[in-house]
Amino acid sequence: MPCCRLLEYDVEKRTTISLLEGLAFANGVALSENEDFVLVCESTKYRVTRLWLDGRTPQVETFIGGLPGYPDGVTRAVDGGYLASNQSLNQLPHDPSWLTLVCALAAR
To answer: Which of 27, 64, 67, 94 fits a 20 to 30 Å CA distance from 83?
Structure first.
C-alpha cells in the first residue's frame, strides 16, 4: 500500500513541501549531478522512480522497474551512473534481460 512521500525542506524559509506522494515504501533517494531530477527507491514495487525537477513532461516516471528484489538505497556512481542495492531477492526471473538492463544503466 502506498504510504510514503518525498519532501523538500527550505532551510531559509523553514518550510516543507511534498514533492511526491503515494510512494510504496520509499527507501533511498539520490539527486542527479545537475539537480534536474531525483531518484527514489520504492522497495515494495521493485522499482526506482524518477521525479524531474526541471518541469519536463512526464514529471514522474519509472527509472527502472521489475527489479528482482527490494531496492534498498540508491546513490550516484563515480562514472555518472547510479547504483541501487537489493535488500533481498524476490525471485530471479527466467529471462536474464533484467541484468542486461541494469548493466546498461550502470554504464551510463
So the answer is: 94
Alpha carbon separation from 5 to 13, 23, 26, 29 (Å, rounded): 20, 6, 7, 11
What's the grid cell of residue 1? Answer: 500500500
Closest by CA to 64, choosing from 21, 12, 19, 108, is 108
Q: Is the whole-model pTM more than 0.85?
A: no
pLDDT (tens place) for every residue of the chain, 108 residues total: 567 899 999 999 999 999 999 998 898 999 999 999 999 999 889 999 999 998 877 799 999 998 888 888 999 988 888 888 887 766 555 555 555 565 555 555
Closest by alpha carbon to 63, among 22, 94, 30?
A: 30
Task: Give all domains of the chain, ordered by start, each with its CATH number.
Answer: 4-106 (2.120.10.30)
**Contact between 76 and 82 (Cβ < 8 Å):** yes
Q: How far apart are CA 15 and CA 31, in angstroms?
A: 20
